Amino acid sequence: MPAPALASAVEAKAVVVRFGGLVALDGVTLSVARGEILGLIGPNGAGKTTLLSVMSGTQRPTSGTVFVEGFDITRVPTYRIIGLGLARTFQVVKPFANLTVRENVAVGALFGRHGTSRSSRAAFAAADMVLERVGLAPEAKRSASELTLAGRKRLEIAKALATDPQVLLLDEVMAGLTPHEVDRAMDLLREVNGSGVTLVVVEHVMKAIMGISQRVVVLHQGRLIAEGLPAAVVADPLVIEAYLGTRYAGGDRGA
What we know:
The protein contains 9 helices and 10 strands. It is globular. The longest helix is centred in the last third of the chain and has 16 residues, at 179-194. The protein has one domain (8-248): Rossmann fold (3-Layer(aba) Sandwich), CATH 3.40.50.300. A hairpin with a 2-residue loop joins strand 4 and strand 5 (71-72). It is of the alpha/beta class. The termini are far apart.
């Protein structure tokens, strides 16, 4: 693997992704500082999930370069990227339905950054600590298929945390949650970030984006159209026109 080139947690340089005639990302350049919580917003089809996929190595860019913890990972297999300490969640949560909650998380511990040095016993011990951390310890012995939507979302985060990430990419982990569940999820993400994990959060729940993000980036039609402090970004007329709408600009900023 190439030697480290920079100090950012994640950096994308002039990333282009084309699917046939569709340009999903059009020259996106973005740097995420270590320890930052970056909110990534934009309308459906803007390229947000594609950008997460490129950052995590599950989608190769047509052109451009991606660095994780200073290493060029543009052509690196995903199993090596997770070894650098990057993990992600997915919009559609798909736990191993036939396994228990505890077993699902242990899989992450076995195949994460320290997985090669862990025994099965150590992986389950790590899983128990993560389940306690995310509030799923009482559900440890249940089948993952029995969890509520909020529980499956927490399990998705738990599986990612079990890989011992330094960088965590989160794709709409609050979609479909009640306001109380959103509050709990926000508290969890603040705690995770407080432990030193860099977060990139794709989310449509503006209460969450405004409540936890230190910086916000906006994508529209595959291009980065705004970035900066949350309050400044959501007041940007271009962002209001492309994504938020006049209702939000008028003060309706709930979930």
